[in-house]
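To close the chapter, one final illustration. This time we ask the reader to focus less on the individual chains and more on the assembly as a whole: which components sit near each other, and how the overall shape emerges from the parts.
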Amino acid sequence: MVRLAIYLRELAALAENGATTVSSEELAAAVGVGSAKLRKDLSFLGSQGTRGVGYDVPRLVTRLELTLGLDRAHSVALVGAGNLGRALAGYDGFSRRGFRVAALFDRDPARIGSVVRGVQVHHVDSLPVVCAQLRVSIGVVATPAPSAQQVCDQLVAAGISCVLNFAPVMLVTPEHVEVRQVDLAAELQVLSFHLARRAAATIGDGAPELDRSRAGAGAIR
Amino acid sequence: MVRLAIYLRELAALAENGATTVSSEELAAAVGVGSAKLRKDLSFLGSQGTRGVGYDVPRLVTRLELTLGLDRAHSVALVGAGNLGRALAGYDGFSRRGFRVAALFDRDPARIGSVVRGVQVHHVDSLPVVCAQLRVSIGVVATPAPSAQQVCDQLVAAGISCVLNFAPVMLVTPEHVEVRQVDLAAELQVLSFHLARRAAATIGDGAPELDRSRAGAGAIR
DNA sequence: CTCACTTTGTGCCCGCGTTCACAAGCGTCT
DNA sequence: AGACGCTTGTGAACGCGGGCACAAAGTGAG
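The assembled structure is written out below.
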């Protein structure tokens, strides 16, 4: 559940501010969800709060970290040392939360051997060997779209079963592999959609442009 | 709807391969959803397919682009010229889909005036002026977490009502502002969660660690 | 023209996730 | 100690989105 990670993030912030206890109401307000939903989510970890008081912040943080598997650090392999790949290699949001970018891979010989933000760039063919050596458990695909599926296959073949994909293609994988998709362009398109919708509403009033076109087509027939 | 963007992406790929028509079954398989869901999604744009044949690819592409507001190019302002910000400025997935990174902003004087991937870096204080000049309609927040809310407020004050936020904080905005959140660390944590879950399952068998702890607590009482 | 086949569009049903509401439990104040 | 107030945990109702299945509509063959 992605919300558990959000709760953890907010709890960590509260802990830094010296809070020792928090109620579901407070925490829910902080992350912008209903308090009942939050309690039900947390009940997934068993009873961690005390009635009449709330949740013990450090205790809940520990419990969430355990549940999310953050009690041990994870090594991630990053494939694609282009713009995005290099930036992700240096993104401190990863290291700050216990994810170490252990290796970078690329196909372009010109990039191989260089060091980006302290991380060695390997050829993608050495992926199985390097990943095994470094105990990599998570793979990140940051290649152009055409290479993504092949790279993913190589990651899976190397025994990696968790993949974060930035390439704008749907990866097909075996059942046991967990893929999470982040499509940056699609996110912008959704925002663009809202812009268009609002523009149409102000011009056409009430009836958004979609309905007008449908009505028009109907009249023609 | 984010799926509309995915459909468009796949349709564009089909069009490049010379396909002129596509059935809901084919397209649904390509994007990995049910065909009924896809048809229902597309019915949102009015009747665009012809029964017995399928959907006309170029026509549907045009219709989707119109709905998503991609008929005109959008200028985006990118705040935060750190690792992530610079990478996003050069990400060709944006420009390829009609989103132009028109301006970069940062607070650090050392970065101001430099040019990243052909884009000028401005001081964040000049945000309102520059955004107005360049007709910016979308703002991207790629700053560290502590600055994100303030930056977002400045974007909103500059009249921008669509924000893509990469900072790991929940932005609070007026009602009319559309915010989309991308938390890269949270994505990795979800993957880590699945790893932990699977590890617990193989050790404890059947009963995942969560249930065992709950059962244990119950037994203690 | 008619018939058989294909594919869309959609009404209906089901299951999941969210919300509501409340009993149970814990701390505190008197 | 007892009563009161606060907060959790959860059963029950609700709503929404997804899947199924079929009528409507179009195409092509005979």
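The two ends of chain B are 48 Å apart (CA to CA). The beta strands of chain B are 21-22, 49-50, 54-56, 74-79, 99-106, 115-116, 119-123, 136-141, 162-165, 178-181. With these observations in hand, you are ready for the problems at the end of the chapter.
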